[in-house]
């Protein structure tokens, strides 16, 4: 029998800017193929760097929505010499802005807002501005809002915060705080985290790089206490609001850098079965954070949520030197049609 080579299932890109805006890389293959590629890429990257059994890898979780899922767009505004204003993507820093009328991976209400953004931003740009970075965002309900012109323009009043309703909790976020970009897949991530075999009613859950408090709030009923540590003061304020509005009395929010706050907190905590979650920015963990996590005595489980497989792989090498063994790897397709992939890893102290 002749075995034919597998021919990728070609798909016609749906967006006229595919290939030039720098956002999507996979509109020209089927979603099935995209998922398989992301899964196999992650397995090969991680197993090359650290010792992980293939049984530890769970199949990638697809996104319920493969278009219209992003709740945030970052756009560039450039004022030309003749005073005309361009708003769009800037894939290459020096090249002209690529003007867009819609972004097909953004939530539809964001795309519908772009003409209004053009009007409002053009009217607001001061005479001496040549360029501005604009952030446009929305949530489950309410309006689309934007900022980026003027020092406090990303700060929103409480009444204007965005929110998402997830597993029985309403979580607020703002223009100047991080929040997960794909709201459609977030409940599934919450269910997966809650189903991990780590929870203990006596334990403290340390939600490090905790942002506006999402993960600690989602698991607060599975542990004795939650401690959220976050350096962005605006995120800290909204995390406090989220704890208050959800009526929780076992969640504490601590401002500051992990590297400074964690040493005092963790070794004072009573149970040796404490659970730590880390969800750092794309660059991953600092050397100091890795050293701290490797020196923890009162933690048995470490959950690592990463949006960057490269920094994850490097950090897993560092953590394996501190007796953290990788037990479970769960890729999730938070960013369909793009090269990016989110990964949840469960590590256990040897
Ligand atoms: C990827 S976000 C995760 C936020 C949150 N876990 C969520 O899912 O919404 C990373 C967060 O870590 C914060 N951060 C970055 N470096 C930090 C550090 N050294 N110490 C504490 N927080 C930090 C950022 O401000 C940001 O809110």
Q: How would the blueprint of this fold be written?
A:
Elements: H1 31-49, E1 72-79, E2 85-89, E3 98-99, H2 108-124, E4 131-137, E5 145-147, E6 162-166, E7 169-173, H3 186-194, E8 204-208, H4 214-219, E9 225-230, H5 233-245, E10 251-255, H6 258-268, E11 275-278, H7 287-295, E12 301-306, H8 309-320, E13 324-332, E14 342-349
Parallel strand pairs: 8-9, 8-11, 9-10, 11-12
Antiparallel strand pairs: 1-2, 1-4, 2-3, 4-5, 6-7, 12-14, 13-14
Bound molecules: S-adenosylmethionine (SAM).
What does it look like?
The protein is 27% helix and 22% strand. With 350 residues, it is an alpha/beta fold. The protein has 2 domains: 31-66 and 164-349, Rossmann fold, CATH 3.40.50; 72-157, no CATH class. It has a 7-stranded mixed beta sheet with strand order 10-9-8-11-12-14-13, sandwiched between helices. Strands 3-2-1-4-5 form a 5-stranded antiparallel beta sheet, with helices on one face. Helix 1 (31-49) packs parallel to helix 8 (309-320). The longest helix is centred in the N-terminal third of the chain and has 19 residues, at 31-49. It starts with 30 loop residues before the first helix and ends with a strand. The protein binds S-adenosylmethionine. S-adenosylmethionine binds at residues 178-180, 209-212, 214-215, 229-232, 235, 257-259, 279-281. S-adenosylmethionine (SAM) binds next to helix 4, strand 9 and helix 6.
